[in-house]
């Protein structure tokens, strides 16, 4: 088997390679003067089981194009099987028509990856589980919940006052899974989006007075959802509010909102490479999913079940 990395998250790719105790395959993914992507795999991959590690995070279109072009290079180099490993699958939130004459971009991106030649996909915490069905190739959608739950156990001692909070109705199933795992209560924020990129808290379902709240979600993007939910929880008597989020998209004002807002702490995974602004933010901590992704890759390569990784 071979591990190949694009430029989107080399730190995670190296950590996965270290977990598997194998080197990353020598390859170059670079730009021509006009910014077109060029990829060359500098080792023989004929007949190999190849895993390309590339999150389609910011800049999403460049990183997606790198993934497609690396896949094409591998197809033409006669790799036996190509797995697109996308710790963060961008475009996932565009998973339905939101109005007349709008696209379903998540499906288009799934088609692009498949048509480029990927044989299977390994990803984590898709915005909605059913996006797996957008791929007509085997797709494993790992969950970061076991990794994050372990971190919560180590940093937020269990007590009757611990409460898991879903910051919107769409995330209830995910939050309920975590709450059951921690044997904690569950509350739900009734969020409304007056327009794209803005969020407004309408109501909170559950009594959060005197509770230590942990918001649990798949994505923190502009930080609006989290900060508004945290404010509403504090207003209703929560003693503190932290957040555990799988994918730190952290665009625009997000770091500022976390730094100066009511959140005690934001914990994200390393599915997305972060700039210094995030790495140096005292309120943001990262936990690695390299062992989880590495173990999934090892099991896929050995044709073993990955179900155990959901326990
Ligand atoms: C939406 O349903 C997602 O689960 C996140 O809650 C959302 O993407 C977060 O966006 P933002 O941080 O910009 O409010």
TrEMBL record:
InterPro entries noted in UniProt: PRib_PP_synth_CS (IPR000842), Pribosyltran_N (IPR029099), PRTase-like (IPR029057), PRTase_dom (IPR000836), Rib-P_diPkinase (IPR005946), Rib-P_diPkinase_bac (IPR037515)
Quaternary structure (record): Homohexamer.
Binding site for D-ribose 5-phosphate: 193, 217, 221-225
Protein known as: Ribose-phosphate pyrophosphokinase
Active site (UniProt): 191
Top-level taxonomic group: Bacteria
Taxonomic lineage of the native organism: Bacteria, Pseudomonadati, Pseudomonadota, Alphaproteobacteria, Caulobacterales
Organism: Brevundimonas naejangsanensis
Top EC class of this enzyme: transferase
EC number: 2.7.6.1
Binding annotation for ATP: 34-36, 93-94
Residues the record lists as binding Mg(2+): 127, 168
Cofactor descriptive note: Binds 2 Mg(2+) ions per subunit.
GO molecular function: ATP binding; kinase activity; magnesium ion binding; ribose phosphate diphosphokinase activity
């Amino acid at each position: 088997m071979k591990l190949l990395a694009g430029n989107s998250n080399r730190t995670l790719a190296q950590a996965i390679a270290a977990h598997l105790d194998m080197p990353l395959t020598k390859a170059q993914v670079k730009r021509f003067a006009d910014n077109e992507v060029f990829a060359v795999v500098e080792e023989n991959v004929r007949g190999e089981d190849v895993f390309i590690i590339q999150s389609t995070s910011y800049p999403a279109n460049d990183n997606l194009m790198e993934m497609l072009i690396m896949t094409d290079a591998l197809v033409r180099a006669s790799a036996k099987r190509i797995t697109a490993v996308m710790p963060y699958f961008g475009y996932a939130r565009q998973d339905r028509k939101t109005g007349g004459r709008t696209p379903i971009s998540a499906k288009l991106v799934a088609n692009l990856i498949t048509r480029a030649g990927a044989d299977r996909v390994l990803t984590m915490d898709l915005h909605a589980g059913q996006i797996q069905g957008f791929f007509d190739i085997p797709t494993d959608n790992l969950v970061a919940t076991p990794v994050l739950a372990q971190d919560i156990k180590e940093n937020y001692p269990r007590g009757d006052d611990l409460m898991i909070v879903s910051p919107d109705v769409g995330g209830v199933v995910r939050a309920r899974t975590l709450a059951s795992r921690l044997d904690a209560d569950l509350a739900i924020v009734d969020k409304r989006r007056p327009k794209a990129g803005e969020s407004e808290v309408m109501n909170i379902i559950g009594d959060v007075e005197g509770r230590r709240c942990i918001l649990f979600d798949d994505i923190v993007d502009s930080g609006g959802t989290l900060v508004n939910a945290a404010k509403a929880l504090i207003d209703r008597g929560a003693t503190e509010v932290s957040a555990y989020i799988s994918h730190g998209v952290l665009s625009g004002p997000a770091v500022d909102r976390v730094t100066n807002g009511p959140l005690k702490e934001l914990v994200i995974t390393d599915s997305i490479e972060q700039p210094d602004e995030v790495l140096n933010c005292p309120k943001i901590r990262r936990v690695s999913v390299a062992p989880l992704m590495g173990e999934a890759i090892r099991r896929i390569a050995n044709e073993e079940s990955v179900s155990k990784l959901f326990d």
